Amino acid sequence: MYTCGSSFTGILSRVYTCVPGTWRWMLGVSGVPAVVQFILMLFLPESPRWLYMKNEKSEAIAVLSKIYDPDRLEVEVDLLSAALEEETLSKNSVKYTDVFKSKEIRLAFLAGAGLQAFQQFTGINTVMYYSPTIVQMAGFTSNKLALLLSLIVAGMNAIGTVLGIILIDRFGRRRLALTSLFGVVLSLIVLSGAFFLQSSQSFSEICEAYFLNGGCKRGSGWFAIAGLVLYIAFFSPGMGPVPWAVNSEIYPGTYRGVCGGMSATVNWVSNLIVAQSFLSIAAAVGTASTVLILVGVAVIAIFFVLAFVPETKGLSFEQVERLWKERAWGSGYETESLLENGSNRNGI
Length: 348
Prior knowledge:
The protein has 18 helices and no strands. The chain has helices at 8-17, 22-29, 31-41, 48-53, 57-65, 70-90, 103-121, 124-129, 131-137, 143-171, 173-199, 201-210, 215-235, 242-247, 253-285, 287-308, 317-329, 338-346. Belongs to the major facilitator superfamily. Sugar transporter (TC 2.A.1.1) family.
C-alpha cells in the first residue's frame, strides 16, 4: 500500500511513489548505462601515457597511430616522451599543499575551482531534482505525464551539452560562460516569479474573482515551465561543459592531475551542500526567495568570470602557463619554470 503526502516534499513524493513498483524501475533502469559502459570499456585501449610510463612504448605508439596520421605521429611521441620525463623529475616534489604556495597556481586553481563551485551553486541539480514538482505546478496532475515532461527536460539538458561542445571552440570558453550565466539569471527570475505567484494569497483571490477552474494557477504553472525551459536552454551549453573544459586547460602538466582532482572535489562538495540545504532554505524563506538567492549567486558568478577566468580558446599549454605568470607577476616575470618559480619564492 502506498501513501502520498500533501506537504511541499509530498508533491515530489507522489510523482514517484503513488504508482506501485515505480521506484524499482527507477533503480533498475539506472543500472543499464553502467552495464553498457562496462561492456564498451572492455574494448577501450590503455592510455598511451600510461603505456609509455610502463615502458611499453610499442603498444603506446600503436594506440597513438589510431589517432594521428604518420606525419603527426612522430611529433606526438616526442611530446609524450618529453612530458613524461618532466613529470618523472618533478612528481615527488608536487604535493596538494604546493597548489597554494605558488601564486600562479593559486590563481589558476581559484579560476577552475570557482567555476566548479558556481556550476552547482547556480542551482542546476536543484532544478533537475525538482523538475517534476515544477511540472505539476503547471496543472499536469497525471504522475506519468509529469515524469514524461521532466524526462524531456533532462533530454534538453543532454542536447544543450552537445550544443555547448559545438560552440565552445567557436565562441570561446569565457564568452560562452558569461552568455550562459546571463541567461541563467533571466530564467531564474522568471522561475522565482512563478513560485511567487503560486504562493501569493492576493493573486489567488484575484484568480478566484475573475477566472474559473483554476485558470490562473495553470497560467502561473506554465510560467514556471517557461522558466525551467529557459534555465536548461541557457545553462546546459555554457555552465554545463565550460567548467570541465577550462579545468583541463589552465593547469601546467605538473599540477594538472592534482588541481583537476581538487576542483572536481569542490564541484561535488558544492553539489552536496546545495542538495542538502535547498529544502531547509525553502521551508524557512519560501521557494520564491530561495530561487532569488540562486539569482544572486549567478550574478556573483558573472563578476567572478569577468575578474578571474581568462579566455583559453586556441592557446597552447605553454601560452596558458605564460598567461598565469603575467597575471601573477606582471609582464616582467622571470623566465624560470613554473615549478621552480613557486619553489624559489616559497623557500621549498
